[in-house]
Every structure is written in C-alpha cells, then in structure tokens.
Amino acid sequence: MERNPLDLDVNAQLLLARRATDFFSDTLSVLPDAELGGASLLSGWTRGHVVSHVAYNAHAIARLVEWARTGVETPMYESVAVRNREIDEGAALDAVALRTLFSESAAHLDEAWNDLPADCWARPVRTMQGREIPTSGTIWMRTRELWVHAVDLAAADTSFADVPAEAIDRLLSDVVDAWTSRGDGAGLILNVTDSALPLRFGETDTETDTASETDTASETDTAFATEHTDTVSGTRAALAEWATGRGAADVSSTSGEVRVAPRWL
C-alpha cells in the first residue's frame, strides 16, 4: 500500500518535493512564451498568475524555514493584499523573467531546507491560515502546491494522472479534512477505484474495506454506499480533479448526478 508523504522521513519528503519541482518545471518548459498569458484552470488567472503564485509561494515558505532556524517570527506574507499584489506583478513580467522567478525561488527554498539544522524541523511555525505545523510540514505544503498547480497550467497531456499515488492520497485526505473542519461534505465518501487495496476518504478519514476476500467488489460497494448519503467513485486522478474543483470527468455518484464538490481552500 502506498505510504502517506507525512509518514516519510524528512529526506524522503524532500525527494518527493524535488520530484514535484521537476514536474512543474518540465510542464512550464513545454509552454511557449506566448501561451503564458493564456487561461489556466483557475478562474480569473492566466498561466502567468499560476507561475507567479508558485514562485512567491516558495519565498513565503522559505520565510517559515527562516523562522524555524532563527526563532524570530517571520510570517509567510505581510497580508493577503501584499500576497495578491505580488502575484499580479509577477504575472505581468515578460516570459524570461517569469521563468527565472520560478527557478530562482525554487532554488532558494531548496537551499533553505538543505541548510536547516536537524533539530529545527520539529519547531512550530504558522501557515497563512493561522494553522500551527512543525517546520517539516512545510515540505508537504510545497509539494502539494507544485503538483496541483502544474496541472493548473493546462499544458497538453498534463493531468492529475501524472501525480504519484502517495501525493494524491495525501491531497485527498487534506481536502476531506478541510471539508470536515468547515462542516462541509457530511455523508460524502470518496471511493478510490484504482488502489491495490480498497481505499476510501471521508467520515472517518482514510478507510480500508474490511470485507472478506469472498465478497465481490460490487457487493461491498453497494453495502457501503447504503450507509452513507453519497459515495463519489473514481480513480485517484479523477477524484483529485473533482475534489479540488477542477472538473467532474470520470467520477460517478451513488446519488446519481455528481454534485459540485464543496470548497476546498
């Protein structure tokens, strides 16, 4: 069974983050300069906005790493307004400058992680939303941003199917946790159809089916569905797309029509 990224040690998490950085970089590299001003998968944002956001996100996370290293509180952003202004200004850069902004910011964050003493990884820092996490949690924060926003670049042949299973499993868990914290998604279950073992998210978070080996998949799914309001099924990639509000292709619902997913962020 795939391992959750947060179950990995710091070095393994960093490898996954660097893999995500390479994926975003490769996706960006196939986009011609003239297409950076085109629409992304995020309403109101061009591809340039996505690249700018991901670049400044690296600097923001590096500030959290600096906070852990020095003990001096350094927030990710001064304010939401400052964050939004940075993104807009970055999106207005010419293509060469925008690509450089991404590559240099990614290198800056990677260096900050590399230079962080081992005893600092457990130190608490706060996200932009005010949530306290250990500094090691910044690795997954960044990894998630890279995988999801690489898909948002809307490059040909790039989708959630390119994202590793271990990253999608953590992403789906994060989404369901966010719904639960806001009181959304009650009775909503996400059923992964391409896992080696039965895997579901919702209600009690990640679940594995305890049905006997003699039960058929259809019998198990039918019995499970009757206990909940709505079970949305699909591959990891399809569920990630739907749960993050990026489309509903290739998912099905026990209620018939697939509902619009609750807001994630």
Structure overview:
Residues 18-154 form the Mycothiol-dependent maleylpyruvate isomerase metal-binding domain. It holds the Pfam family MDMPI_C. Keywords: Isomerase, Pyruvate. The strands form 2 sheets. Strands 4-3-5-6 form a 4-stranded mixed β-sheet. A two-stranded antiparallel ribbon has the order 1-2. It is built from 8 helices and 6 strands, in the order ααααββααββαβαβ. The chain is globular and about 50 Å long. The protein has 265 residues and is α+β, with helices and mostly antiparallel strands. The chain has helices at residues 10-29, 47-70, 80-91, 95-115, 137-152, 165-182, 217-225, 236-243; strands spanning 124-126, 132-134, 188-192, 199-201, 230-234, 252-253. Strand 1 and strand 2 form a beta hairpin. Helices cover 48% and strands 8% of the residues. The chain has 2 domains: 5-158, Up-down Bundle (Four Helix Bundle (Hemerythrin (Met), subunit A)); 168-253, 2-Layer Sandwich (Nonspecific Lipid-transfer Protein, Chain A), CATH 3.30.1050. The protein starts with 9 loop residues before the first helix and ends in a 12-residue tail after the last strand.
